[in-house]
Amino acid sequence: MSRGIRICGIRNIKRVCKFIKCESVKVMEELEKKLDSFDNQERRGALRLLWAKVEAGEITLPEAGRKINVHCHTFYSFNAYGYSPSHFAWLARKRGLAMAGIVDFDVLDGLEEFHAAGQLLGLKTCAGLETRVFVPDFADMEITSPGEPGITYHMGVGIPSPQLSGSAGQFLNGLRRTAQKRNLDLTGRVNRHLTPVELDYEKDVLSLTPAGNPTERHLCVAYARKAEALFEDKVKLAEYWSDKLGTAIEVEQVPAGAELLNQIRAKTMKRGGVGYVQPDGGSFPQMDKFNEFVLQAGGIPCLTWLDGTSDGEQQIEELLEIAMKTGVAAINIIPDRNYGPKCGPEKYRNLCKIVETVRKLDLVPVVGTEMNGPGQKFVDDFAGEELAPMLEFFLTGAHIVYVHEILQRQAGIGYCSEWAANHFPDRAARNKFYEEFGRLITPDHEETLSGFDTEMSPNEILKHS
Predict the structure, then answer these.
(1) Pair type for strands 68-72 and 99-105
(2) pLDDT digit string (tens) for the chain, length 465 residues
(3) Whether residues 395 and 252 fall in one domain
(4) Statement to judge: residues 357 and 332 lie in one domain
(5) Is residue 324 domain-resident?
(6) Residues 261 and 334 in one domain
(7) Strand 300-305 and strand 125-134: pairing?
């Protein structure tokens, strides 16, 4: 065989290999798109096919590393990229996260799907929900909800099941109903201002959600799409929004750029906006009642921290003292809001201070990026100089919440259980046990924990791991 023929043959082989690789990438991308289908069966099937390709060696996934995102919203409330629980789990596994957690507003709709996806993929997972609550002791101070004294965002993490009965089930249903009435009323007020752009709530808004739980951010997307349909010319569309929002909207921002969506929300739905109604103490559940619900649901009540600049957060130790008396054992932090050129040194100092306060009080840290707004990161930069010193502490919290949810689901001996209180009245000792066990257990061994019971000692449980 001549040298020229050999070279030609090698080139053809390379072309074939490149073609096969490109086709494989296309197939994977198509399956990943299906992970965001509103059809649960289609999502489940796509995830199984992706995993089959992993098992066949067609897709290579990295080993679990040390990055975590334990606070991500899915399309069951609002995800800026449209990710379902299955898609977020797949991407977390694909990017080598050590742990991933979802937190949706007012619902637990994605919990079972996310847990099942984690089981299939070998990914450590946890789930919970977020809402807003009223804190009577801080009724005259802003906390984490700007312009709304006494109101703060609040969470329940590590909830083992969405199947709640009795008063817990009624409370959960009430959260959903209240949120939807609030959004429906808001739509009516905003419609009057934005006419001729008016939404049909069922047709234009509910259609954007898989389970009828829209948020303000869904409303913004719906208004942007409705306006685009009415004003096909981009110049006229930008003029319409500039007039209605009272601020300059550039042609480059239409029909649905991130800045336009943010302006729609700010100018029509938030404080000072045409559709805004100032909440009072009866607009949201009181913090102690929500914490009671979370404990009944088997979760961990979790305070949220913004950036330490509000009057309420400047008294964070007093706020934590009040919260802990009603069951709070964890605190949520969104690190990316608090460091870098856009934040300034004050917020980073506040971040360092809250981390030290959480350490001192032996609370469980819960961190993530939210992903319910355009431009938010998939995962924090834990290798950067700002967060690197905090990573091990954040990992501790992730392992605690992970194993709490498993133990509560399998044996009723989670972090806030009577069993835990009896064996670990000291919070530091409790943290040490759940962290150690959380690091030992892997998703493929979760089901074996169903043999545990409340008669076993902590040492017996560790011995069986």
Answers:
(1) parallel
(2) 566 656 656 566 555 445 455 667 888 999 999 999 999 999 999 999 999 999 999 999 999 999 999 999 999 999 999 999 999 999 999 999 999 999 999 999 999 999 999 999 999 999 999 999 999 999 999 999 999 999 999 999 999 999 999 999 999 999 999 999 999 999 999 999 999 999 999 999 999 999 999 999 999 999 999 999 999 899 999 999 999 999 999 999 999 999 999 999 999 999 999 999 998 878 899 999 999 999 999 999 999 999 999 999 999 999 999 999 999 999 999 999 999 888 889 999 999 999 999 999 999 999 999 999 888 999 999 999 999 999 999 999 999 999 999 999 999 999 999 999 999 999 999 999 999 999 999 999 888 888 888 899 999 988 876
(3) no
(4) yes
(5) yes
(6) no
(7) unpaired
Q: How many domains does the chain have?
A: 3
Per DSSP, 456 falls in state S
* Cβ 300 vs Cβ 156: under 8 Å: yes
Residue 359 lies in a domain: yes
> Coil, helix or strand for 261?
helix
Q: Based on the fold, state whether residues 342 and 447 are members of the same structural domain.
A: yes
Residue ranges making up the domain that contains 344: 121-162+297-463
Please tell me whether residues 446 and 308 are part of one structural domain: yes
User: pTM for the complete prediction?
Assistant: 0.93
On whether the CB atoms of residues 94 and 32 are closer than 8 A, the answer is no
The angle at the Cα of 138, spanning 136 to 144, to the nearest 5 degrees, equals 115
On whether residue 71 sits in a domain, the answer given is: no
Tokens of 448: 């074996």
181 in the same domain as 149: no
Q: Are residues 146 and 211 in the same domain?
A: no
